[in-house]
Structures are given as C-alpha cells and as structure tokens.
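hiii so my PI (J.) wants the whole complex modelled not just the main chain, which honestly fair. so below is everything: two entries, each one labled with what it is. i double checked the lines twice but i was tired so who knows lol
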Amino acid sequence: MDMQVAKKKLGLKERYAVMTRGLDWTPSYQKMEDIYPYMQYEGIKIHDWDKWEDPFRLTMDAYWKYQAEKERKLYAIIDAFNQNNGHLNVTDARYVNTVKLFISGISPLEYVAHRGFAHAGRAFPGPGPRVACLMQSLDEIRHAQTQVHSISNYNKYYNGMHDFHHMHDRVWFLSVPKSFFDDAITAGPFEFMVSIGFSFEYVLTNLLFVPFVSGAAYNGDMGTMTFGFSAQSDEARHMTLGLEVIKFILEQDPANVPIVQRWIDKWTWRGYRVLTLVAMMMDYMLPKRTMSWKEAWEVYFEENGGALFKDLARYGITMPKCAEQIALEKDHLSHQAWSTFYNYAAAANFHTWMPDEDEMAWLSSKYPESFDKHYRPRYEFWREQAAKGNRFYNKTLPMLCQTCQIPMLFTEPGDPTKICYREVDYKGDKYHFCSDHCKEIFEHEPEKYVQSWLPVHQIYQGNCFPEGTDPTVEGFDPLAAVLKYYNLEFGRDNLDFDISEDKKNFAEWRGQATKNA
Amino acid sequence: MQIDLRTVSIKPLRHTFDNIARRIGGDKPASRYQEGTLDMQQTANFHYRPTWDPEHDIYDASRTAIKMADWYAFKDPRQFYYGAYTMARAKQQDTAEANFDFVENRGLAATLPESVRETVLKVLLPLRHVAWGSNMNNASVCAYSYGTGFSQPHIYHAMDQLGIAQYITRVGLLLGDVESLEEAKRAWVEDDAWQGLRRYVEDTFVIKDPVELFVAQNAALDGLLYALVYETIIDDVLSSQGGTPVAMLTQFMTDWFAETRKWVDATVKIAASESAENKAVMAGWLTHWRDRAAAALLPVGRIALGDRADEALAEVVQQFNARMAKAGVTL
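here's the output for the full assembly
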C-alpha cells in the first residue's frame, strides 16, 4: 500500500476553526447591512467577530451521535414510566400541580427560545456565535418536545393540562412567563442574547429549571426528572454560551458596557419576577420540599451570582441594583404569591390548598422572620373558613403591573403590611407598576410596554369571551365566559385540591395499585 | 405458549391534548410527531411587536406571499421531531464514519487518479461555502416562517447543511490539506467559474419571504446542485474514472438528498395545492430560481465535465421539472 505523505495533524482548535469559521467569506454582491440588517440599531459595537472564543467545539457529527444516544435512553425511560403507571408513585396528587404549572408556563417558552435562537443565529455575522446559537436553537426544540412527550402521560390521567398551548396564550397568570419571552424575542439580537443567553440561562437557570427537576426527583416523578437530567448537558453548553456572549460584547468596546449593564439590570428583575411562580412552587406545591425559595435564592443568586458579578467587575459590570430589593422580598415572595393563587383558584388551571400542620411548621422554620407573624394567621383563618364551608374564591379581577403583569400583590420593600403601588403618566394614560424596577423598565421603553396584552384589561374590554358572547344579557356570568375562552373546565381544572377529581382519582388508582380490594 | 404479563390497568381520562384531538378528529392516541409539532408555536395575544420588524407580529403569516387556511397543513413525511431526527442522522453519521475509516485505513485516497483528486478538490471544496450559506438561509426560514409544521424541518435542514459543510471540509483535509481549503475559498471568492453561484447565494441572503427562500434554497438550488454534483459528477462520472472512494466519502450527501427531497416535494405540493394563487406564486418562484440556479451551476459543471456539462445539466433540469410536476407545479 502506498504511504501517504505525512500531513500536518490539526489540533482540536484548528480543526474546529476550519469546520466553522473557515466556511465564512466576505460577501460582495450584497451589502453587509442588507444581509445583517439588525446589527446596528441596539448601539452595540462589534469590531472583530473573530475574537469570539468558541465556548464548546462540537461538530455536527459528534452532536448527532451524543444527542441520539441521550434521546434513546430518555424515551426508553418515558416508555417504561408510562407502562408502569409511574405517575402513581409520586408523593401525592398535589405534586401533579407543579407539572401543570410547568407544561403550561414553561414548556411553551422553550419553544420560543428555539425560534429566538434561530433568529439570533441568523442575525449575527460571526460564524462562531452563529453556530453556537443555532445549536442552542436545535436543543431548545428538543426541550420543548421532550417536555411535552414526558408530560403527555400525566395529561391522560389528570386535569388542567389538556389544552396547555391554548391556555398559555390566554390564561391570566400565564401572561407573566409569556410576556417575559415575548419581551426577549422582540428585543434586538444582542439584547436577546443577554436576556436569555446570559440572565436567564446563566444567572437564573438554577432557580428555574433546577427546582422543577429536583422537585420531580424528590417527589418520585421519574418521567419529569429524566428529561431534566437529560437536558442537563445541553444546559451546561447553553450556560457557557451565555457567559461567552457577555464577555465578548464587553471586550469589544467600552461603549457597550453601560448598554449591557442596563440589560442585565432589566433582565435580572424581569426574570426574578417570573420566578415568583417557582418560589411558591418550591414552598407550597411540592409535597416533599427540596429547599425553601429563600435558601435557593441565597445559594444560587447571592453566593454563586455574587461570585459571578465579582468576576465581571473587571469589565465594569456591577451587581444589578434590584438585588437589594429582592433580598428584602425573599421572606415574603412565595407566601404572597400562594395567597394570591389561593384566592384566584377559580380562574387557574391548577389546584391550590392550605398547607397542613407539618407544612406550616416547615414554613415557620424556614421563614422565622415572617411566616408566623404575617402569613400563618391568614392561613389559619382561611382554613377555618374552609372547614365551615366558606372556601373563598375571589372573583374580582386584580390590577396588574404593566411590565411584569403580576397582580399588584407585592408589598413595599421593608414593609410587609403595605401593598406597593407605582404609577406613570404617559401620553394621557396612567400606567401601574408593582415596583420601582418595573416602573423604570417601562420608563426606558414606554413605546414597547404600552403594548402589553394585560389579561385583566382585556377581560374588561370584552376581548376574552368566546366568539358570539353577549355580555349584555341578563344573568351574564363573566367568569364563566372567561373560563370558556380559556377552555378551562369549571370544577375539574380549577378550585381547591380537596374537592378535586385529581385527588379522588389518585386515591382510588393508588389503592388499586397497592391493595387487593 | 403465551405469557400474559399484566400491569394494573387504569382507564385514562383522555388520550391526548385537546389541540391534537381537534386536529386529528377526536380524542385518540397521537404520535410523538403530532404532539411535538402541532400548535407548538404561539398564535394569539402577543405582547409586543418585534423592535427589529415592527410591521409584523412575532410570528406572522403575512411575511410570505403564500396564503394558507391552516399552516399545519404542512406535514413532514419523515415525521421528524427532534428525537426521530437525531436518531436518523446518528445512523447516517455511523455509516459516514465507517466510510471515512475505510478510505483512510486502506490509504484509498492515495490510490485516486490525480485527475480525479484534482477535480474533486476543485468542484467539491468550494461547495462547503454553499452549504454554509444554506445553513444561514434555513435558520432564516425557521426563524421567520409561520407554524411549526413548516418551520421545524428548517432547523433540522440548517444543521444538516452545517454537517455537510463539515463533511466536505473533512474530504478536503483527507484528499488535500488546509491549503486546499484556502485555495477553494479563493476560487469561491475570485474565480469566474464560481461567481454566478456566489452571486446566487448572496442574493438569497436578502430574500425576506420565508417560503420564497425555501424555494430558492431547498427546492431550486439544492434540487439541481445535489443532482448534478453528487448524483451525476461524483457517483457516475468520477466513479467510472476510479473515483469510487470519493463516492463513499460523500454518501451522506447522496442519501441526505434522497431523503430530504421527499420533504421538499411534499412542501411544494401542499403550498401549491392550497389555491390557484399559491400555485402561480410557487411556479413563478420555482421558474425564476431554477433558471438562475441552472445558469450558475453550468460553469461549475464544466470544471468536472467540460463540454458534457450542458447536457448533464439539461438532464438534471428535466428531472427537476418532472419532480415539480409530480408535486403539482408544471414549470
């Protein structure tokens, strides 16, 4: 056999360079600004795309190989879980409500991330960031689909998830996560990368994705846990990308620093407000708790995030100023949120309940500064009322914050007895806010946030009734009409857990699986 | 003897999600492709207009001239959701890896006639830039088109094209070296033979209509290019000149073209059969981009085929016309 002339062996980095960057060329038949029209308007200056450090070097053949292996394992476990009625092994049926929250609130966002990263990848002229973004776009459709596929089996046996796409676009509290991602994808590509790539994937993911997956693991939900663990290695890649994006933009031009700082401030706060839902999930909805919201915030944001921002200090980036207010809220956030959902249990697609004695004791121990003083008496009163047959369902619509779209339920920083209200007059209209931070976000881009599709406003304007509804007829029941518009089935999808079909069925099915009746 | 294994059987409350049931005609078990695709994209009550495109909603069917009563009429005949997609590609990747190993371990690259090796470096290597352009265009269609039935296959296609660009790069490194890649890039940017094709690719970068971009890239350009380069030049002509090892190295592309054109044809068919207006628009785009692609590919074909390029290309165009006619668009 002929011996080939020995060729210079390429190192990993050089080899990856010819596999990606080498593919690019400078176009001459069309202008750069026509091919990449979204590169200028955010004010970010990039002088040299080649300075981008590839955060991971994965060629497509290796990607297919690793990912297919993960998919094979994941679907094998999902199939086994389904075949064994794995859902009957969860701690108790209340747990399933976290799954409802997840599929209607979070999974649709994975899909938006998929489209958003396709957009960002297409928008960037640099081949390094393009490849990283498109790979993430591909991963994100994976996450959306594996979540739907894992949770599909829960939908067969439990209520509240049966029309989650439809609900995500309509149900009042789901406008909180939805508007967050709509905000990110409608921003320019650089801001999108800072909002989702950095703030969300890097800074906050341990407070969003991890609590759900750990919660699933603690509560015997193999199905949900498995997609979480399977997604973990993708998430590690996404976090590396998020950090690289920030460093790259900051190193390119000092004028980028204040723009990026403003985005970090904004998206940390926006992200934190969405985490309100996670906070109450951790403290109230998991029958077997992993850790309290407050502990999670302290570990994942104050400690880990603190170290991160120290590291970014050399670029002139400082800890977002909202961190101070978040620290003041951490003793209250989950309790105020759960109280609100307990009130509005008639209009949500999951059940709520009052914590039992053991759970109250757990909350007291985790929140010694606030729980017994402010929240326990409230819960005891509601529990008494419920025992007397007066379970209260609030049918009056709350005022929403124009920016984060959460009802005005938060209290003044430092005074948990007073609701926090802020307002701004803009072009003859009055806009309301839950906090100084949401108000500042609005004031910086009022033309964007006046567009918010606020569910309460929309209901009052008559835009949330099924087509053909006549609200002027006698005895018109607005709540019933709104629930129809949501496709939320009264008495099955909503109301207190104690009277739910989920509770009844679970008890019966578990009995069937564990006893010889 | 039959063994009857049993699990506790519980009657489910429903078999699938409501949106799926509405689309498949009732509450019955749905496939993973269906549950992972139908209505995945949000459709209502968007909060803000894109700051980068304030004329449109985040997802907006009016970005294209094609009009559909229901964008979920688009179905991928391969039924690719992420899991099915990656598993299919991993299998092909295995074959490609075995082929590269086979050629490398037996030193087959060195046995290629010099003329064949040179032709491959000249014709194939600049195509990594075309594949890279296609990666970008398919990302574009994925980002700006409407409905997951239409948009989803484009992210797979985008990443396939990146994979193809990387396979071509590996062929270049195997039959040549880094300098061969650089020389091919120089030719791509400077040589007359490539300027028609480069202009074509750069012109597609500024197409705003996602369905037109699908036509220009995936139907017209790739329809002619893959048939000419991989099926005709490599698999037929070069193989007969001792270039079979090259055909092994590009098997991924040949198989990929055979698979993906089923989806391309189905997509053309669904768009065109929706209405006479759609059919006219599709026919206009297909004709325009087919003619441009054919003109751009002729000098490329000549590098390998010389005077026979005209005939080979005419045949490829004819095959393409037949494909489109079968998909309901007579060109």
